[in-house]
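DM from R.C. (forwarded with permission)

"hey, sorry to bug you on a friday — could you get me a structure for this? deadline for the figure draft is monday and I only need the backbone to look sensible"
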Amino acid sequence: MKTLLVLLTLIVVWLLTYGTPFASAYPEKAHYYGSPEVILPMTFAHGDHTETRCMDCHHNFVDDTGGEPCMHCHVSDTSVSGLLEPQFHDFCRGCHEKEAAAGKVSGPVRQCIACHLSDLRP
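My reply, with the result:
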């Protein structure tokens, strides 16, 4: 009985740490946020980022390039839309990796589905 309890505990810890080994539903590419090209949906919960200064992410507050949501320019402005994936992966995931390395609670780093959902949260 003890062995079964230990085994179940290890399985639960594994699942909480690494996620399920089974493939999850993958979001569909579509013309999200007015994008001329098909892209994956993205979610961003401002409420999860209250410890981060707004200007750390919102360059438009500093360089006065507009007051629209990120996706407005990053998917529709042809001068930056081609950089959408590397920009957001490097910027967002890079911050999450830095926070995790510092021992802080961080956002997802390698679980694609954690970011590529429709933006349902404020």
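R.C.: lifesaver. Helices lie at 2-18, 54-57, 59-63, 70-76, 84-101.
me: no worries. The mean pLDDT is 82.
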